[in-house]
C-alpha cells in the first residue's frame, strides 16, 4: 500500500500515483550506511575546501580553478546519494546543505565567469564600502572647511560639500581581473548573501516601508516562532505516516498547514538567530531591506500565487534569480528577438521562461532532497513547482488586463468592505489552489514522517507526550 494515497488526490491528479510511486529499479544503488561521526567527518572538509578554493591565490587562472572545483562539486552532489548514516534527519540535513551549496557554487564558479557579471551582493557591498569611504572623506573636508574659507577637492574646483555629494553618487569600479581570484571582502559578501542582500544601498531597490531593528526587537518574534513550532510538533506527534492514509481532504489540509508552519518557523528561527547574532556582534541595526526575510508578510494570508511566493522564505530567491532568471532572460533577449520569432512569441518567452527557470531550479533542488534522503521520486516535486510557475505567470498576465488592473485598483483604493471582500476571496482562492496542488509536494515528506522524527525537539512532547 502506498503511504498517503487518498482517493481524492488520485481523482484530482490522474498522474499523482506515477509521479509519487518509487520505481523498483533505482537509478543509483541503495545508499551505504556509515557511522555518523565518519559520515560528517568526510563531508564537511570537502564542503569547506570547495569554498576555500575561491580565496586561494593558486591556481591563478579561472579555468584551472574551475577544473579543480569540478570534482569537489561532484562529491557534494553524489555523497548524499551514495552514502547515508543512522540519523535520518542528519542525512536529510546534509542533502539540503548539498542542494543549496551546489546551486550557489555552480553560480560562483561557472555562471558568473561565463556571463562576466558578478552577483548583486558583491556589487552592493562595494557600493556600501565606497559610500562609507566617501562619507568619511566628506566629513574630513567639512572639518577642513571650517578652518579654511575655500577648499578644492581633488583639484576639481568643487567645494567640499559638492565633492561629498559627487563622491556619494559614484558607483564602484568592479575588478575586471580574474573573477575567481577573490578578496576576503568579496568572499564575506557572497557567503552572507542569502542572509543579507544589501538592498538598502540602492534607493531604487530599498523598500519604502523598510524598518531599522535592534536585535532585541526580534526576541519576542523568535520566542513566538519557537512556541508555535514546539506546540505543532507536539500535536502532530500523535500521527504517524500511516495515519495520513485515512485523512479526508479537509483533514489533510489542516495537517499539511501544520507541517508547513513547522517548516517555515524552523527556518525563521535559525534566520532570526543569525540576524540577532550579527546585530549583537557588530552593534549595527537590522535594515529590513537588507534582511529580506524580516520584511516579509505571512504567506498563509496571500491572495495570489505571486503574493505567496514573494512572502515565502527568501533565502534562495536571489541565488536562483542570478543562476536561473537573469541568464535565461539574457538568452531570451539574444536568441528570441522580435525579428527572429515574432513580437508576440518574443514577449511571451521573455515573460514566461525566466520565471519558469527559477521554479525549475527550485523543483530540481527539492527533487534532489527527497530522492537522496527519502528515496522518493524526483518528478513529483518538479511538477509541483512547475505548476506554481504557471500559476505565477498567469497571475502576472491577468494583472495586465483591464479586469486585472481594475481588481488591483479596487483592492488598494476601494472602500473597506470592498478591500476586505477581495482579500477574503483571494485567501480562499489560494486555499483551494494549495489544497489541490500541495499533495504532490507533501507526499514524500508524509512518507518520510519528517514531523514525527522532529518530535524530540518539542519540550511539550518530553513533558506531556513521551511514552
TrEMBL record:
Signal peptide: none
Family of the protein in this entry: Belongs to the wax synthase family.
Coiled coil spans: none
One GO MF term attached to the UniProt entry: O-acyltransferase activity
Transmembrane segments: 36-55, 67-83, 89-111, 218-240, 252-273, 352-372, 378-399, 420-442
Keyword Transport: no
Protein's recorded name: Wax synthase domain-containing protein
Basic and acidic residues: bias regions: 139-151
InterPro entries noted in UniProt: Wax_synthase (IPR044851), Wax_synthase_dom (IPR032805)
GO biological process: lipid metabolic process
Limits of the Wax synthase domain: 298-386
Region (Disordered) location: 139-158
Keyword Transferase: yes
Source superkingdom: Eukaryota
Subcellular compartments: Membrane
Lineage summary: Eukaryota, Fungi, Fungi incertae sedis, Mucoromycota, Mortierellomycotina
Main location: membrane
Keyword terms: Membrane, Transferase, Transmembrane, Transmembrane helix
Amino acid at each position: 500500500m502506498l503511504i498517503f494515497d487518498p482517493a481524492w488526490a488520485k481523482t484530482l491528479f490522474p498522474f499523482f500515483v506515477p509521479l509519487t510511486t518509487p520505481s523498483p529499479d533505482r537509478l543509483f544503488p541503495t545508499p551505504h550506511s556509515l557511522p555518523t561521526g565518519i559520515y560528517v567527518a568526510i563531508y564537511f572538509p570537502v564542503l569547506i575546501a570547495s569554498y576555500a578554493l575561491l580565496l586561494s591565490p593558486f591556481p591563478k587562472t579561472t579555468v584551472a580553478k574551475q577544473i579543480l572545483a569540478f570534482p569537489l562539486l561532484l562529491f557534494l552532489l553524489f555523497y548524499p546519494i551514495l552514502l547515508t548514516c543512522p540519523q535520518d534527519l542528519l542525512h536529510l540535513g546534509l542533502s539540503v546543505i548539498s542542494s543549496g551549496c551546489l546551486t550557489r557554487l555552480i553560480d560562483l564558479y561557472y555562471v558568473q565567469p561565463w556571463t562576466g557579471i558578478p552577483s548583486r551582493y558583491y556589487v552592493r557591498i562595494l557600493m556600501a564600502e565606497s559610500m562609507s569611504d566617501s562619507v568619511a572623506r566628506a566629513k574630513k573636508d567639512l572639518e577642513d572647511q571650517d578652518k579654511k574659507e575655500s577648499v578644492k577637492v581633488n583639484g576639481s574646483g568643487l567645494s567640499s560639500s559638492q565633492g561629498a555629494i559627487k563622491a556619494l553618487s559614484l558607483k564602484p569600479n568592479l575588478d575586471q581581473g580574474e573573477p575567481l581570484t577573490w578578496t576576503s571582502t568579496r568572499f564575506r559578501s557572497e557567503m552572507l548573501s542569502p542572509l543579507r542582500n544589501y538592498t538598502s544601498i540602492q534607493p531604487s531597490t530599498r523598500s519604502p516601508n523598510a524598518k531599522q531593528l535592534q536585535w532585541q526587537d526580534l526576541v519576542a518574534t523568535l520566542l513566538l516562532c519557537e512556541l508555535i513550532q514546539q506546540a505543532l510538533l507536539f500535536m502532530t506527534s500523535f500521527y504517524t505516516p500511516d495515519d495520513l492514509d485515512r485523512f479526508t481532504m479537509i483533514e489533510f489540509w489542516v495537517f499539511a498547514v501544520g507541517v508547513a508552519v513547522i517548516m517555515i518557523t524552523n527556518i525563521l528561527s535559525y534566520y532570526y538567530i543569525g540576524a540577532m547574532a550579527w546585530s549583537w556582534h557588530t552593534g549595527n541595526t537590522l535594515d529590513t531591506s537588507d534582511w529580506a526575510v524580516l520584511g516579509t508578510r505571512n504567506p498563509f494570508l496571500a491572495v495570489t500565487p505571486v503574493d505567496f511566493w514573494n512572502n515565502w522564505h527568501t533565502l534562495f530567491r536571489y541565488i536562483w534569480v542570478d543562476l536561473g532568471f537573469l541568464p535565461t532572460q539574457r538568452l531570451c533577449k539574444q536568441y528570441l528577438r522580435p525579428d527572429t520569432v515574432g513580437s508576440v512569441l518574443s514577449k511571451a518567452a521573455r515573460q514566461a521562461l525566466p520565471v519558469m527557470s527559477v521554479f525549475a531550479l527550485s523543483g530540481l533542488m527539492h527533487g534532489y532532497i527527497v530522492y537522496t534522503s527519502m528515496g522518493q521520486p524526483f518528478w513529483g516535486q518538479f511538477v509541483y513547482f512547475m505548476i506554481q510557475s504557471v500559476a505565477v505567470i498567469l497571475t502576472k498576465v491577468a494583472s495586465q488586463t483591464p479586469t486585472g488592473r481594475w481588481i488591483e485598483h479596487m483592492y488598494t483604493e476601494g472602500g473597506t468592505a470592498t478591500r476586505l471582500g477581495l482579500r477574503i476571496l483571494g485567501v480562499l482562492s489560494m486555499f483551494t489552489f494549495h489544497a489541490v496542488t500541495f499533495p504532490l509536494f507533501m507526499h514524500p515528506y508524509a512518507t518520510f514522517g519528517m514531523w514525527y522524527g522532529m518530535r524530540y525537539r518539542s519540550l511539550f512532547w518530553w513533558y506531556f507526550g513521551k511514552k
